[in-house]
Amino acid sequence: MLVDQAIESARRDGSAADYLAMEALSKAPTVTPHRTRADATDALKLSKDPEIRGKAALAMAMAGDAAFARNIEAELEQDYPLSTQVQEYWLPTIRAALALQAKDPDRAIELLKKTSDIELAQPCLCSAYIRGKAYLMLGDGKAAAAEFQKYIDHYGLVGDFTWGALARLQLARSYELEAANDPAARERARTAYQNFLTLWKDADPDIPIYKQAKAEYAKLQ
Length: 221
Description:
The chain is mainly alpha-helical and 221 residues long.
């Protein structure tokens, strides 16, 4: 009910498309793909703005719907050949997310080289999060931690965006990888897990990623 009211309010002030696109992107790592698709599809019905389309495509790439994401990616490539934001941020970030889904972290990191100079001026540090996930997939905890730390160092760019909290979980996982070579990283991992679980203490206990985090933390005790 509250979500419906928020959407209706957003419609009245003209920001409904962005609200829905952000909902899709924010929840993509934590909900089923069909819920992400519903918000992304509704956002695209309301607006063809390139940032809305970028968020929707990235959400669906993160949710594992490659066909949906690639369709929007192709539209953006064709419609905005001279846009720095599209060409240097949204397209490489969407493509990197698709590369992660294909289990190709090296490709994701290569694609995201384009975003590094401008990502701090773009929405929600999405490229840093995906780069961090790529380093985690490669088993490079130190490099991954540096990416997720950006969410803490630049909190003002993130606000209450869900990936800000999730970055703390990914930071914990990064430190846990580091602990294999640096025993001190184990305590950093414990602290990062605690920070995430505190932030999400009121979350639905059945959310899979929340359950995973609690199980991982328990193993560190």
